[in-house]
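User: Predict the structure for this protein chain, please.
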Amino acid sequence: QVQLVESGGGLVQPGGSLKLSCVVSGLTFSMYRLRWYRQAPGKERELVATITSASGRRNYADSVKGRFTISRDNTKNTVYLQMNSLKPEDTAVYYCNAHSDWPIADYWGQGTQVTVSS
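Assistant: Here is the predicted structure, written as structure tokens:
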């Protein structure tokens, strides 16, 4: 059974930092592309950051470039999202995603709430 469990969300003031973690089990972690998405109230789910399986290449949404860093630890089956210089518009539920192109597979975590407010 595949499980993705996020943690690390919470309430933070503007300009602050949070580090999200997602522990993955039940699949060959190193073979999966990992992504963080977020969804704010009344908005569509947005891709925030991606890290590939092989090279560890990273991509970011323009809205978070220079502030967020995605990383993975294949020894701990964990993907991280370091979020710095947080803004109120970063407030959302953040979801971890594991994706494989072959065999085709797509798995989601339950989400963790991030609220940026003074």
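The chain has a mean pLDDT of 96.
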